Amino acid sequence: MSNLIRGEFYKLRKSKYFIGMIIMSIAISFPFIEIWSGDIQSSKMLQHGMYSIHYSFMFISFSSILFALSAEDFIAKDFKNRNISKSFAYGYGRKEVILSKLIVFIMFSLFLELIYTVILVIYASMKYGFCDTLDTNAIMYLFRMISIGIIYNIATITVIGAVAIITKNSFFTFISPIILFIGYYLFFDSSLVSKKLFVVISYIHPYIRGIWAMGRFAPMLDIIAGAASSILILTIAIAGSLLYGKYEDIK
């Protein structure tokens, strides 16, 4: 399994889009800085680098398009063009191949996210300082914010990867984050949707639950629900991908 993961990393590094994705991640950090700079004018308490980390996790609603482009080339096209059969030739099973693809895709997506996060945090810290007072409460909040943010971002990234594996279609992979986020906001604004259905969706949507859980004074119930929602979606996405690989004729 470890050799398979290393092979996928090597394939990713040698791909044409590897450097392009990194450049795009750097490029999108600048509009993110503009959005953050505009929002903090109405809230002085957010004018610190530590709180910009919260924003970088929220920006997955935009940067997920970048992750979808990566999944389109790295996963969907590999399955569609049957390049995946080369791994079977070395004796690896479907489960190992799919898991290795997902692991490498998740790690690369987190790396891209780290790039624009570091740029945003450095900018905010140089302008306003990292935090007002780095006491125990601030450290605990920072730990909770990063932990919850990573969990719900991984859940979202895994859903995109699962769509790429199951559909093997570049178009559906690309629009998957649009459906995930834009569809939710349309759902949120629609007066035609059942309130009970809205409550159910809001409780299992990793992005919404994650945002609530990362709040500075979020109640313990929101924190637990945010982590549980992300773990649930992550489990469903991975299980769905593995079940697809088990019953679908992948060559």
TrEMBL record:
<keyword id="KW-1133">Transmembrane helix</keyword>
<feature type="transmembrane region" description="Helical">
    <location>
        <begin position="97"/>
        <end position="126"/>
    </location>
</feature>
<feature type="transmembrane region" description="Helical">
    <location>
        <begin position="138"/>
        <end position="164"/>
    </location>
</feature>
<dbReference type="Pfam" id="PF12730">
    <property type="entry name" value="ABC2_membrane_4"/>
</dbReference>
<keyword id="KW-0472">Membrane</keyword>
<feature type="transmembrane region" description="Helical">
    <location>
        <begin position="223"/>
        <end position="245"/>
    </location>
</feature>
<feature type="transmembrane region" description="Helical">
    <location>
        <begin position="171"/>
        <end position="188"/>
    </location>
</feature>
<protein>
    <submittedName>
        <fullName>Putative transmembrane protein</fullName>
    </submittedName>
</protein>
<feature type="transmembrane region" description="Helical">
    <location>
        <begin position="53"/>
        <end position="76"/>
    </location>
</feature>
<feature type="transmembrane region" description="Helical">
    <location>
        <begin position="16"/>
        <end position="33"/>
    </location>
</feature>
<keyword id="KW-0812">Transmembrane</keyword>
